[in-house]
Amino acid sequence: xxxxxxxxxxxxxxxxxxxxxxxxxxxxxxxxxxxxxxxxxxxxxxxxxxxxxxxxxxxxxxxxxxxxxxxxxxxxxxxxxxxxxxxxxxxxxxxxxxxxxxxxxxxxxxxxxxxxxxxxxxxxxxxxxxxxxxxxxxxxxxxxxxxxxxxxxxxxxxxxxxxxxxxxxxxxxxxxxxxxxxxxxxxxxxxxxxxxxxxxxxxxxxxxxxxxxxxxxxxxxxxxxxxxxxxxxxxxxxxxxxxxxxxxxxxxxxxxxxxxxxxxxxxxxxxxxxxxxxxxxxxxxxxxxxxxxxxxxxxxxxxxxxxxxxxxxxxxxxxxxxxxxxxxxxxxxxxxxxxxxxxxxxx
Length: 347
Description:
Blueprint: H1 18-44, H2 52-60, H3 66-99, H4 111-125, H5 131-152, H6 160-184, H7 186-197, H8 205-224, H9 226-233, H10 236-241, H11 246-268, H12 274-286, H13 290-315, H14 323-342
Helix pairs in contact: 1-3, 1-13, 2-3, 3-8, 3-11, 3-12, 3-13, 4-5, 4-6, 4-7, 5-6, 5-11, 6-7, 8-11, 12-13, 13-14
């Protein structure tokens, strides 16, 4: 079990001095500039080589030529990467605060497993084959598992350790079900292979429209929880003394994380490590104040996701290496480095 116990994580979250706030604000502005540049690269660079003129024409004078169609597809892909990356980063930041575990991500509470199990059920038993069809199954599965983990973790009496244990147990059971169904149904195995890798390649305006309301609602809720989660980081007794409602904050944090990661997973498949790495790295230069961690994670997580997607399109030309594979290749070594450096792994 990974728990966030070092005393530095309990540091005071009082307002920073003006100079430090200015530096943080400047850093956030710089992060936005980097995000814009990466988004432009996602539109301009890909498995199919386009000239700058073709990219410019596709952006502003699209008439249905080959280049215009490619740019239009990349714009949908980039938009979904922006939304999904922000959602994964925010949900990771919220879950790390909720569980007091600096290495938590949506997979810790079984949300990815719930979405995956729901999709394989839709493919195998209900004959759903289109993305617009099973996106709702994925979101429903993520939401149902989030509620189940909350119930098993003790509901109003939930604690970080109980939630993490419940999420781990539910994930193991669901992944067992997932493997059993795919072994018995070869067709489901073939259909699930692409989705479970995690990809932005199937992005469409319809998919984005379906998940956008959930992502907006989850983002607003997560950002609004920064102050009460800051209080909870100093311990339950201190949080109560500061007037925080622990049960309500935990329930709303679970809801926000489930909505955000569930919607992102429904649209892209389970993409690992984005929600783990970015909030954890951000914390190293913003400090423990979630009023800065969450906005930074919202901006920098899409940078990682889109950057990985562009890299995957370039290294395997004319084919593509899906973004879920690239983030796993990057995230695995980074995760090991973070665990060894901070020595947070405990039995």
